[in-house]
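### Sample
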Amino acid sequence: MDVSNRDWMSALPEELWDIPLTELAIPGSHDAMSYCLDINSPLLRSESDVFRLLDKLFYCFTRPIIFKWATTQV
């Protein structure tokens, strides 16, 4: 079957149609959600309290490290 990358989900086998998306292994980009990251991007609510405290206390130190680790392509 010839399916373009743009609509690959339209070719899922019928037995997968009723499975919630959260239960499927869906291919994605290693850059997902980091394409617009900058040094001032907010932390997620899901980040640990310790991490949030470190970010508040050592902003000038932690932010460049986070930015460097999260940015995988230019």
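The chain is about 30% helix and 0% strand. This sample (1-phosphatidylinositol phosphodiesterase) is used throughout the tutorial notebook.
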